[in-house]
Design brief:
alpha+beta; 6-stranded mixed sheet; globular
C-alpha cells in the first residue's frame, strides 16, 4: 500500500480528533495532494466560507509517492485563500510530509477555531491539541525551538507574527527554511489561533509498492535523470538564485515595480555572488537529490540563501542592489512568517505610488532600510503597514486606482515577466490560485523545454499564436505534480510518472491517463473558483505589466486577449 488510507480530522472548537477515510475512488481518480484536497473542499463547500472564519477548513495533504520517491517529501496546504478569496494552495518541502505519512496518515483536516492559542502534535495515535500561550508573539524560529523543547524530535509547521495578525499573505514556515509561501495559509492558521503543527518522527507506516522491483527500477531511472539534468545540477550548486543574471538578459527580471527591464546590478544580488562569498553548506528537503537550499555563514551567524523569487522581489523590483541586505530581509521575512513575493510586490507598489505622487507611504526605490522597516510594519499592521498587509488588490481598491496593482485574482505577480516569455501572460491570467509561476513554469517551455507526449513546444518566446494551447496542455500535465506531491524542479517526464504510479499502485497509469487526471484536477479547482465568485471575469492582467519596457524584452508586449481566446477555444469554454 502506498496510501495510509486515512486522514486525521481535528476540530479546534470541540477538541474532537477523528479518523476520516476518503473513498478509494477518490484516491484512484485524483491521487492525493491538491487533487484530493480540492474534492474534499468542494464537498465541504469551503468556497462559501469566510476565509478568516472558523468555517474555512485547512486541509494538508501528502501524495502517493510521499516517503518513497525522490523529491516527494512535500506537503500541500489548502484552504479558501484570504488573499484571493478563491482556491488557496501552497506546497512546501522539508520533512513534514514524510513524517505525516510514516505516522500513518495521508493528511490532516483542521476545522473550527480555538478560543486560545494552541498547537497540534501529530503521532501514529492521533493528535493532541496543546496550549500555545507561551508561543504567541514569537517568531517562527523561536516557535520551532520552543516546540522541540516541549516535544522532542519533530517536524514543524508554524506561523509568525504576520500569521497571528492576519496579514493576508502570511506564510507557514516548515523546518526552519522551507515555506508554504503563497495565498495566505499562515493567515488561515492565525485565524484559527493555531500557532503550529508538530509531527513526531515514527515508523508506523511504510509505503509498499505493488511491484517492488519494477518500482525500484522506476525510482532509479528518475534519479539518474536528475543527476544528468543541467537545471537540477545548477540548483544543486547555487540554488534558484543562480538564474538572476540570465533573467535580466532575457528581460525576465522584474525591475522598478515592473516598469523597467534593466537593473544593471544583477551580479550583486545573484546567488552566484552570495554562494561564492558566504556558502557554509548545502541543504535540502528530505529524500531530495537536488538539495537546492543553501546555508550561508554571514555576519557571525547562519542564514539561508534567498531564493530567486526573493532576490528579485526584494532586490531588482525595489531597486535594492545589496545582496547582503537581501540576506537580512529574507531572514526577517521568514522569522515574521510572510510571503516574500507578495511582500516585495506590495512594498514595490508603495514605492511606485510614493514616487508618482499617488500616495505617500514614506518609502522610495532603493531605500533598503525603509523596505526592511516596512516589512516589520506589515507583519504587525503598524502605520502604513496596516493597509499594505491587505495586499496590492485591496490597496488599489482603497485608493480608488486602476491597473497599477500587480496581481491576478489578488495574488501578486511573481518574478517572471510575461513580456519576456509571452505564454506567461495566459498562464498567469488563468492559473487557479492567481498569478503563479509554479508548477507550469512556462518560461522553461519558452527556453526550449519540450513535452513531446502532449505536444508542448514553443518556437518563439515573443509569439502569441499557439501559446493558449501549449499553456493549457502544460497546466494539465503539471497539475499532476501537485497531486503526487512532487517538487516542480524534478525533470520528470510523463513516462517516469506513469511508471512510478503504475508499479507503485498496481493500477495502469499510462501517460494519457496522467494528462486526464491533471485536467480533471485543474477543472475541479476552476470549479471551486467559479463557486467562490472568482471565475472568468478575473482572467486578466493589470495594465502595469502590459506596457513595453527596455532591456531583453524591449518593445514586446503579449496579446492577452488573443491568447485567452485561443485558450478558451482549446478548453471548449464559451
Amino acid at each position: 500500500m502506498m496510501y495510509a488510507g486515512k486522514l486525521l480530522r481535528i476540530n479546534l472548537n470541540s477538541g474532537d480528533v477523528k479518523t476520516f477515510r476518503p473513498g478509494k475512488d477518490l484516491y484512484r481518480e485524483f491521487l492525493g495532494g491538491g487533487g484530493l484536497a480540492v474534492n474534499l473542499h468542494l464537498d465541504m463547500e469551503s468556497y462559501s466560507a469566510d476565509p478568516l472564519g472558523p468555517e474555512n477548513p485547512l486541509i494538508l495533504m501528502t501524495g502517493p509517492l510521499t516517503a518513497s520517491a525522490p523529491s516527494c517529501s512535500r506537503l500541500q496546504f489548502t484552504a479558501r485563500s484570504p488573499l484571493t478569496l478563491g482556491w488557496g494552495e501552497s506546497s512546501t518541502g522539508g520533512r513534514i510530509a514524510t513524517y505525516i505519512k510514516r505516522a500513518g496518515w495521508d493528511g490532516l483536516i483542521i476545522e473550527g477555531k480555538s478560543n486560545r492559542p494552541v498547537y497540534i502534535t501529530v503521532s501514529s495515535e492521533g493528535a493532541e491539541i496543546r496550549d500555545a500561550d507561551h508561543l504567541w508573539g514569537k517568531t517562527t524560529f523561536e516557535t520551532q525551538d520552543e516546540i522541540r523543547k516541549d516535544v522532542g524530535e519533530v517536524s514543524t509547521a508554524v506561523i509568525g507574527p504576520a500569521g497571528e495578525n492576519l496579514v493576508r499573505y502570511a506564510c507557514v514556515l516548515v523546518d526552519n527554511s522551507r515555506a508554504a509561501g503563497r495565498t495566505g495559509m499562515g493567515a488561515v492558521m492565525g485565524s484559527k489561533n493555531l500557532k503550529g503543527i508538530a509531527v513526531l518522527k515514527e515508523d508506523e507506516f511504510t509505503p509498499e509498492p505493488e511491484n517492488p522491483e519494477a518500482y525500484r527500477d522506476s525510482v532509479k531511472q528518475l534519479a539518474d535523470r536528475i543527476k544528468e539534468n543541467f537545471t537540477a545540477n545548477m540548483l544543486k550548486e547555487v540554488g534558484t538564485g543562480g538564474y538572476v543574471e540570465s533573467a535580466e538578459m532575457f528581460g525576465d527580471l522584474p525591475v522598478r515595480y515592473f516598469t523597467s527591464g534593466v537593473f544593471g546590478k544583477a551580479e550583486s544580488i545573484s546567488a552566484n555572488y552570495l554562494v561564492e562569498k558566504y556558502l557554509k553548506k548545502h541543504d535540502g528537503c528530505m529524500g531530495c537529490a537536488i538539495r537546492c537550499g543553501k546555508v550561508l555563514e554571514y555576519n557571525g551567524g547562519e542564514y539561508h540563501l534567498p531564493e530567486y523569487e526573493t532576490l528579485a522581489s526584494f532586490g531588482s523590483l525595489l531597486m535594492i542592489d545589496s545582496g547582503e541586505k537581501l540576506i537580512e530581509m529574507n531572514h526577517a521575512a521568514n522569522a515574521l512568517g510572510i510571503d516574500t513575493i507578495s511582500a516585495g510586490v506590495t512594498i514595490g507598489m508603495a514605492m511606485y505610488l510614493t514616487e508618482n505622487n499617488l500616495a505617500d507611504f514614506g518609502v522610495r526605490f532603493g531605500d533598503a532600510e525603509g523596505a526592511f522597516s516596512l516589512l516589520h510594519d506589515i507583519a504587525f499592521k503598524r502605520g502604513n503597514g496596516n493597509l499594505l498587509a491587505e495586499g496590492t488588490m485591496r490597496v488599489e481598491q482603497k485608493l480608488g486606482l486602476n491597473g497599477i496593482a500587480a496581481h491576478v485574482r489578488g495574488l501578486e505577480i511573481p518574478m517572471h515577466d510575461p513580456r519576456a516569455f509571452f505564454s506567461l501572460a495566459v498562464a498567469y491570467a488563468t492559473n487557479n490560485r492567481g498569478a503563479c509561476h509554479l508548477p507550469h513554469q512556462m518560461y522553461n517551455v519558452e527556453m526550449g523545454l519540450k513535452i513531446k507526449e502532449y505536444g508542448i513546444e514553443s518556437e518563439d518566446r515573443f509569439e502569441n499564436r499557439g501559446k493558449g494551447i501549449i499553456t493549457a496542455r502544460m497546466q494539465n500535465f503539471t497539475e499532476i505534480f501537485n497531486s503526487l506531491v512532487m517538487c516542480a524542479f524534478v525533470p520528470a517526464k510523463p513516462s517516469h510518472i506513469a511508471s512510478l504510479l503504475t508499479h507503485g499502485l498496481g493500477v495502469d497509469y499510462p501517460v494519457d491517463r496522467i494528462y486526464e487526471i491533471g485536467e480533471k484536477t485543474f477543472l475541479a479547482k476552476r470549479r471551486f473558483n467559479e463557486l467562490a465568485g472568482r471565475g472568468r471575469d478575473h482572467d486578466r492582467l493589470p495594465e502595469i505589466i502590459l506596457q513595453p519596457v527596455d532591456g531583453g524584452s524591449e518593445g514586446n508586449v503579449p496579446d492577452i486577449e488573443y491568447q485567452l481566446k485561443e485558450y478558451y477555444d482549446f478548453r471548449g469554454w464559451n
